[in-house]
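Bumping with the actual sequence this time:
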Amino acid sequence: MGKLARVRLHGIYCETEGPDPGANLEVYGWLMANTDTVPFWMWSVGDNDGVNISRNSTYHIGAETTVHVRNGQNLYIGGELWDDDEIFNPDDYLGANWRTIPLDEITPWVKNYEIWFEEDGQRVRVDFSVIEELL
């Protein structure tokens, strides 16, 4: 049987932009919610379309999806992010990071999750929330 989980991707918060020139990070990549068998893409931005996020500010996404998590499965939230740099400077890989949420952690009460990505002093946080959708 399992549970229905409503997953909200609130946004990406920039804690610090690190040593790169400029006052912003230009973040691109992808974020998703998935089970052991089915992916749900929530945000995907290509290399040339990175979003500008300045220190101590949030890029609001506001995406939402409902995921059927079956018995014996987990819910996974996370993704892979980069910071877009100048032509002669390679992009900074902020990493791939995931949070595993067991079925019994999906409840009728909202739970907030912070997933951190960082590289060389550049640090961003992705904010998700999960709540069980009751039938």
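The tokens above came from a reply further down the thread. The CA atoms of residues 22 and 44 lie 23 Å apart.
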